[in-house]
Amino acid sequence: MIQVNALHFSRLDGAKPRPILSDLQLTLAPGEQCSLVGDSGTGKTTLLNLLAGLEPLQSGEVTVGGQSLSGQNATALAHFRRQIGIVFQSFQLLESLSIRDNILLPFRLNGGRGQPDRLASLCDALGLTPLLDRYPMQLSGGEQQRVAVCRALVHRPRVILADEPTGNLDEGNSQRVVSALQTLAREQDTTLLMVTHSQALARQFDRQLRLHDGQLHEVSAP
Ligand SMILES: Nc1ncnc2c1ncn2[C@@H]1O[C@H](COP(=O)(O)OP(=O)(O)OP(=O)(O)O)[C@@H](O)[C@H]1O
Ligand SMILES: [Mg+2]
From the CB of 40, is ligand 1 less than 6 Å away? Predict the structure, then answer.
């Protein structure tokens, strides 16, 4: 689950702090799936980075998967990040590792040996099976993005934070990625928060949020 209370976050604009998130509230129940839209620059990536423990909190309470992120040191935050699944807007694949090893990294960091049973079915679902022995530089942007999605799912995280996981994909592959995220999240009761600029994809979620003026607003179904 995700619980955010009174989250404020500003960035320095020259010498002056510019508020990005102000008194933001969010509760996502275990297993809840939610899309997040909002204009470019409103702070969606900033919010996901805060939820992932990648940016230090300035004020407010954030609890993700039962772990409070306030006052945690770097080691505790690094351990926390291994428990969740993160798809970055900028993929963050390791160039020196094969696709297979990139995908298996979170599984191995969590002490997994060999390969998880689900690797084959996940790679099939995402169309990655023929690419496993290549390296990130030998993949298109869309293929790299699907690898990043696969990597975020392989260790069965309790929470998945996905930042525009379909930003570089054609319609067919976008649908494939969203379906894989939703199906896997449903199977393992994982909380899923997915940022997208596509209204069509956002509408495929039971719960839809919009970030505007530093706060989250429920989008009601048409
Ligand atoms: N490292 C940084 N230093 C200073 N300002 C930043 C930094 N990263 C982002 N910003 C600013 O913070 C604001 C929020 O950025 P953020 O990346 O969270 O937006 P976003 O909603 O994810 O946008 P997009 O839809 O384009 O991905 C923007 O005004 C951006 O210019
Ligand atoms: Mg962003």
Answer: yes
